[in-house]
Amino acid sequence: MLPLLGLMLNGTSSVLYGTVPELAPGGRVERAFAIFYTWTLGGSALATPLLYGPLGDAVGPGWATMASAATAAAVVPLMLVLSPRLAAPSTQETSTP
To answer: Is residue 44's pLDDT more than 90?
Structure first.
């Protein structure tokens, strides 16, 4: 289960890092990354000890890991909502001379 969890967590991070600049309103990439990092780091700092710690104590580490994997998978609906806003590469940008 841990390799799958690691794949999910790494994959979501890579996708988010790549799409933050494209979704930044008005080209304000610095502000978009500031918001992204604040929520990401703040969320993990709070969720890990306050949510998953007591959950692991109550139901065991296996179920707490499953809850963590489910939380990581929860980004999929967000991805589906945001994906139409991503710019499709134009044929000029992708073609080589």
So the answer is: no
pTM (predicted TM-score)? 0.49
Residue type, 71: T
* Whole-number Cα distances in Å, 45 to 31, 69, 84: 21, 17, 31
What's the rounded Cα separation, in Å, for the pair 37 and 87? Answer: 22
d(CA 16, CA 38): 14
Using 50, 70 and 90 to split pLDDT, how confident is the model at 88?
Answer: low
**What pLDDT, on the 0 to 100 scale, is given for residue 9?**
66
The 3-class SS string of the chain reads CHHHHHHHHHHHHHHHHHHHHHHCHHHCHHHHHHHHHHHHHHHHHHHHHHHHHHHHHHHCHHHHHHHHHHHHHCHHHHHHHHHHHCCCCCHHHHCCC
| Angle (CA) 20 26 27, round 5° | 50
